[in-house]
Amino acid sequence: MSILNSLLRPLIDTIQAPLAGSSPLLGITLWSIPTAWFALLVFKRASNQDRIAEVKRRIQACLFEIRLFNDDLRAIVRAQGEILRHVVHYQALALKPMIWILPPLVVLMVHLHAFYGFHALQPGDEALVSVEIRDGWQAPDESAGSPVSLNAPPGVRLATPAVWAPALNEVSWRVVAEAPGDYELQFAAGDQHISKSLTVTDRVVRLSPTRPDRSFLGQLEWPSEQPIPRSIPIRAIHVTYRHGDVNVFGWVLDSQYAWMVVFFVLTMVIAVALKGRMGVEL
């Protein structure tokens, strides 16, 4: 997963760069167009289009039968049973192309989530920075209080000293963004050092709320930074960014997952609009 993310990060960042100054809705709309085209192309190649068309015709025939014999209860029940059977058949036919569509779609969406799921900090904003320590590790000098130290670069100010919660294996700080920029927070755990990105800007850019460990799920969910090496006694580092929002014609959807809803709706609408031109039976 680390290699795949390393390849995709610069590619997606390059495509996304011209959209950094635009509204999230525009960027989401533009990404949904090639996504819909890709999904239709895969669906056309991987599915049995003739069988799908036949099943849809049979469902329509059953609906016509219900309307035609609306005074015959037995005929209506029989037609409803046939509709259910054909719907299950249709779902089975659609399953094969979905197996090919979903994995690349999930990978794309977790990368786009880094752009549209969160807002970067603004000058004057506070953020909570927390470090998860690996189980069983102890600092060489426990008298220091916190087993991990944080060095903030110019432009970022430490607002509080470290708060060490041994029961949670977690150390936390509050930091204040003082100026726009891309920063690297430096952490020291014993003689080991690791950094974590922190972004202060009003543009739509890639953010990294979490630098994960090397687990597959951790790297899948948080692809914006290289995973933390296993030799480092830190499991993960978190920065609390505000949740993103999408303004849809004056209706503001305020959630880190709001953009996904808009993305799915737009992709489906565009797919329906393109299916006839591409000759795809859905």
Describe what you observe in this structure.
The protein is of the alpha+beta class and 282 residues long. The mean pLDDT is 91. It has helices at residues 2-16, 24-46, 49-68, 73-116, 216-221, 258-278, and strands at 118-119, 126-133, 149-151, 156-158, 163-165, 170-177, 181-189, 192-200, 210-211, 234-239, 242-243, 245-248, 251-254. The chain is built from six helices and 13 strands.
Q: What composes the largest sheet?
A: 6 strands, antiparallel
Write the H/E string, N to C: HHHHEEEEEEEEEHEEEEH
Number of strands: 13
Stretches with pLDDT under 50, minimum 5 residues: none
Distance between the termini: 32 Å
From the spread of the alpha carbons, the general shape counts as: elongated
**Which radius of gyration do the C-alpha atoms yield?**
25 Å
Measured by DSSP, the beta-strand proportion falls in 15-25%
Structure classification: alpha+beta
- Give the integer mean of the pLDDT values: 91
- In helices, the fraction of residues equals 40-55%
Please give the count of helices.
Answer: 6
Task: Please give a quick description of this structure.
The protein has 282 residues and is of the alpha+beta class. It has helices spanning 2-16, 24-46, 49-68, 73-116, 216-221, 258-278, and strands spanning 118-119, 126-133, 149-151, 156-158, 163-165, 170-177, 181-189, 192-200, 210-211, 234-239, 242-243, 245-248, 251-254. It is 46% helix and 22% strand.
Question: Topology of this structure?
Answer:
Elements: H1 2-16, H2 24-46, H3 49-68, H4 73-116, E1 118-119, E2 126-133, E3 149-151, E4 156-158, E5 163-165, E6 170-177, E7 181-189, E8 192-200, E9 210-211, H5 216-221, E10 234-239, E11 242-243, E12 245-248, E13 251-254, H6 258-278
